[in-house]
Amino acid sequence: MKDYFYLQFKILNRKFIAFGLHPILAYLILFVCFLGFSNYIFFTMDFAIHLYILLAFRVLIKLIGKQKNDFLKFLLTKKNYILTKLIENFIGILPFVFFLTYKKLFLYIPIFIALAITSIFFNFNRGFNFTIPTPFYKKPFEFTIGFRNTFYIFPIVYYLLYISVSVKNFNLSVFSMLMIFLVVSSYYSKLENEYFIWNYKTSPEEFIHKKIKTGLTYTTLLSSPIFIVIGINFTAEFETLLIFWLLANAYLTTIILAKYAAYPFQTDLPQWVFIGISIAFPPLLIIQIPYFYFQSRKKLNTILE
Questions:
Q1: Separation CA 241–CA 234 (nearest Å)
Q2: Which residues contact 279 (CB under 8 A, 6 or more apart)?
Q3: Of the candidates 96, 136, 157, 232, which lies 20 to 30 Å from 105 by C-alpha distance?
Q4: b vs e for 79-107, b when ≥16 Cβ sit within 10 Å of the residue's Cβ?
Q5: pTM for the complete prediction?
């Protein structure tokens, strides 16, 4: 059991190092980001606790994998397996419990503990041995694979939208829409094999334009129902909503370009810092998008021409 947690710790540290961060610095950044995000949602949203529960559930889902659980069952006795999963789940919800304690919301802590305990007895993908249909074609693998891996997030998004409309909370409604863009952005973290890029047999410019067009079109397909609902229920804030939607599309474009600007490697830390700065100062996108465009065209030139 100790070896399992030590191995998980080493794997996580290696991921941070591969990303370009010292593990101590990475843990510090994660702590600050989690604390800042938690304070933000509890300060701006009336139903922040509902979102917090959903986020904790999302973390636990990541820990519930049939293949991993079956492997642990093979290695450990039943008693040690349950104890290992219990410790792992409690580590997963620990940041949420600490923050609730800090906010003196003690009444909600048992809900998180109950989630951690009950999830021990479930394998999330058990019974899902069928292909989940998607509204996307097979060719843009980012959306077909990404949607099947994150399909359960979309009911959560629509639940948040329902709450925001019920309580007339415009900020929460915008957050639900931005969650769609955040989820879609994660689809571009997976790198395809060089052969699949070469198979397009187009110029780098055409390849980039097609990728951006596909990404924006399919994201519009996912986000437009939410956009319409928000626009109907918050007519006075429609201009603000439109600005958020346009900026979200611009950031998605930037992430797509950044992916191929770093190809065949993952997007590195300096690029993410550059993108992070533009989130704080959106006018920087005027420089950022052309920069990543020319960088990605340069990297793709050796494959497509």
A1: 9
A2: 251
A3: 157
A4: eebeebbeebbeebbebbbebbeeeeeee
A5: 0.66
Asked if 175 and 45 count as a contact pair (C-beta separation under 8 A), the reply is yes
Structural domain spans, the chain: 2-121, 141-304
Query: What pLDDT is attached to residue 232?
Result: 93
DSSP 102-169: HTT-GGGHHHHHHHHHHGGG--TTTT--SPPP-SS-SSSHHHHHHHHHHTTHHHHHHHHHHHHHHTT-
Residue 64's pLDDT band (boundaries 50, 70, 90)? low
How far is the C-alpha of 204 from the C-alpha of 189, rounded, in Å? 20
Q: Angle, to 10 degrees, between the axis of helix 269-280 and the axis of helix 285-304?
A: 150
Question: In the numeric block, which tokens belong to residue 117?
Answer: 């305990």
Mean model confidence pLDDT for the chain: 81
Q: How confident is the model at residue 66 (pLDDT cuts 50, 70, 90)?
A: low
pLDDT band, residue 123 (cuts 50/70/90): low
